[in-house]
Specification:
Blueprint lengths: L8 E4 L18 E2 L18 E6 L6 H8 L2 H6 L3 E6 L3 H10 L4 E4 L1 H10 L5 E10 L1 E5 L14 E4 L5 H12 L14 E4 L5 H7 L4 E5 L2 H7 L3 E5 L10 E8 H6 L1 H20 L1 H16 L5 H8 L2 E4 L4 H13 L15 H9 L14
Parallel strand pairs: 3-4, 3-5, 8-9, 8-10
Antiparallel strand pairs: 1-13, 2-4, 5-12, 6-12, 6-13, 7-10, 7-11
Helix pairs in contact: 1-9, 1-10, 3-4, 5-12, 7-11, 9-10, 9-13
């Protein structure tokens, strides 16, 4: 039996996706897996369910979901209930699917989780577990920027107005005493909102001087000659901050608690397997990426990115509240009431059964 742990984290590199804090439409559609998970002969259904519908992004920030799917670890815990997977390209579309009842449980970033909770007046989703931390860096052109002070007056890309990295960069700039208009991005430093897919090209063309971006975009910029000037993890206590959580539709949690616990057992066991088998886990995640998106990450991007993120059972609740506060200070979000956004009771039940330490909701859990 492994020793009890609090916030166990396996070092992994996972690319972070743009997840919007500001108001945004729900336009993107999910892509459903064509393949079906194997169900053991004679396995019994959980809670009488034919299936549990699980959503995630085909991205390494969602490594727990990728590896758990690839290795059949969720299906094993669900028994005769089929694990059905859908992939999403943006947080808002996954929230829309959860609201519509198209998925039951999902892996998602902090910003859309906050948005989804507040927009429904706290009535639709709960965060029930953690998944990943870290993996965001400030990468700059070393010919133009040699120190943090040199960032002032330069053009720095972030993925999207109000997204997780945009808020982090605006907060960092404000703490340095620089004035930046959050909406326009103009000020002591120019914030250039740029899709991660084209940020490397923007860097090569010289239209930006650097970028505050997630992996694997950061590693792609380094491959183009960029230099990591700052790792966002260094700005957080214990170098941990949430980038991916597990959410569930509240009605599903109420009606099918055993199914929720089964998925959480699968997540905990997947994270433990990742920690024990990092090389195999990296290969499994990349193989599932190829299956989901049609394209695997090349080794020169995958390998360095894999080292900068941690998978974790702990949702790092205190950092979620801090991220929300940063968005409020930037003027991108009205002060949200996050009380009740977490229900960690099922996860802590699973952790205790595994001989591990429970995790904390920072006072934001259901009463």
């Amino acid at each position: 039996m492994p020793a009890p742990r609090t916030r166990r984290a396996a070092l992994l590199a996972l690319p972070l996706l743009a997840l919007t804090l500001g108001a945004c439409g729900y336009g993107s559609e999910s892509v459903e897996n064509e393949g079906k998970a194997e169900i053991a002969a004679g396995a019994k259904k959980i809670d009488g369910l034919d299936s549990v519908r699980i959503g995630y992004f085909p991205n390494l920030t969602h490594a727990t979901a990728l590896v758990g799917n690839r290795e059949g670890l969720f299906q094993k815990e669900l028994g005769g209930t089929e694990a059905k997977y859908s992939q999403f390209n943006a947080g808002p579309s996954e929230i829309e699917a959860l609201n519509a009842g198209s998925i039951d449980i999902g892996w998602i970033g902090p910003s859309p989780a906050i948005n989804g909770y507040t927009k429904s007046a706290g009535k639709n989703l709960r965060i029930i577990g953690g998944s990943a931390s870290g993996g965001v860096k400030l990468v700059v052109n070393p010919k133009k920027i040699k120190s943090l002070d040199d960032v002032k007056g330069k053009k720095i890309a972030t993925p999207q107005l109000g997204n997780t990295q945009d808020v982090a960069f605006l907060n960092w700039a404000a703490e340095r005493g620089w004035n930046v208009d959050a909406q326009s991005g103009k000020g002591d430093v120019s914030v250039v909102r740029t899709d991660n897919k084209i940020t490397p090209d923007a860097y090569k063309s010289g239209s930006i001087d650097g970028a505050w971006v997630p992996e694997p975009t950061a590693s792609k910029l380094v491959a183009e000659g960029g230099k990591v000037l700052l790792d966002e993890a260094d700005l957080w206590p214990d170098k941990k901050f949430v980038i991916t959580n597990i959410i569930v539709k509240q009605s599903f949690l109420k009606e099918h608690p055993k199914a929720v616990e089964a998925v959480l057992r699968g997540a905990v066991k997947t994270n433990a397997w990742i920690e024990k088998n990092p090389g195999k886990a990296k290969a499994a995640a990349n193989a599932q990426l190829k299956a989901d998106s049609g394209k695997a990450l090349p080794a020169e991007v995958l390998d360095p990115a894999w080292k900068s993120i941690r998978t974790t059972d702990d949702p790092l609740a205190a950092t979620l509240e801090a991220e929300a506060d940063h968005a409020v200070k930037a003027g991108l979000l009205e002060k949200p009431d996050l009380r009740g956004i977490y229900d960690l009771r099922p996860l802590n039940k699973v952790l205790r059964a595994a001989g591990e330490s429970p995790v904390d909701d920072a006072g934001l859990g259901v009463k």
